[in-house]
Amino acid sequence: MGVTRLKRFGVLYGAVLILFTAYLLLDTFVIPRSYAPVSTETAEPLPDSAFETEEDLSEFDYHDAHIRVKLSEYREYDTDIYVAEVFLSSAEYLKAGFAKNTYGKNVKQTVSEMAEASGAILAINGDYYGSRETGYVLRNGILYRDKRDKTCTDLVITEDGDFVFLPEKDNPAATLTEMGAWQAFSFGPPLVENGEVAVGKHDEVLHALASNPRTGIGIVEPLHYFFVVSDGRTKESAGLSLYQFGCFMQSLGVSKAYNMDGGGSSTLVFLDEVLNVPTSDGVSIEERSVSDFVYIGY
Predict the structure, then answer these.
(1) Among 74, 112, 171, 230, which is most buried by a count of CB atoms within 10 Å?
(2) CA–CA gap between residue 27 and residue 251 (Å, rounded)
(3) If you average pLDDT over residues 155-176, what whole number do you get?
(4) Are 110 and 274 in contact (CB under 8 A)?
(5) How far is the C-alpha of 83 from the C-alpha of 269, rounded, in Å?
(6) Full-prediction pTM beyond 0.85?
(7) Three-state DSSP class for 175?
(8) Cα–Cα distance measured from residue 45 to residue 1, given in angstroms and rounded to the nearest whole number
(9) How confident is the model at residue 45 (pLDDT cuts 50, 70, 90)?
(10) Which value, in Å, is the radius of gyration of the alpha carbons in the chain?
């Protein structure tokens, strides 16, 4: 009797072992499962300490837990200038994108089309990487082009939202990934550095006219930015020289500022509305199709 029970137990144990082994194999190779990321940390909301009343918050043209945008318009140097002051809880909300969501050659869209497709809250044109064969292209932490342009000093936005100016001639593309760059734009030049205007009265971007529509980004401190676009080439707005643009950016109180692609590319979009007057020739008022844009959004 004892032997029979022992045999039954052995058979039962063997069956359980086979079933368990089969389950492990199925669980490992067959049964689909979804997993949450190991880290579930999210950006902390913006503190309300500086905006203690609802009236203070109402001064912003857009605000939520992580993004605040305040718009202003200036008239300087016989030119209309549009300014968006931006506060973020994390640099992850300062994004960049490609026309038709594609990194490539001769792929273009207007900034307003890209902004609408991405759900951007605020958007400006980028560095128009597609018009050149060289110059580092790094967007949202991914390096797309590592061909050096020795004439460019890049604007690198770090993961914590700070600005770093990086001369390509002195730094291989690997430097960007080593420093954990979040965005890198290859245009320039730097307009303001350490709170001082970094361009001279006679400095200019290659092929640019003395007065132009301009696009730039400035930083007061990490996660506090100014996005600036000026009109130009029209009877209503003369446009800015590079030096005038640097002086204006400095007047906003930024510690650093960088010149993006300008001229007919200069465009500022807020909640799907083009705020400035984009033009290439001063006659036709319309957006130029470009290869990339910079935006605030989710």
Answers:
(1) 230
(2) 62
(3) 98
(4) no
(5) 11
(6) no
(7) helix
(8) 72
(9) confident
(10) 26
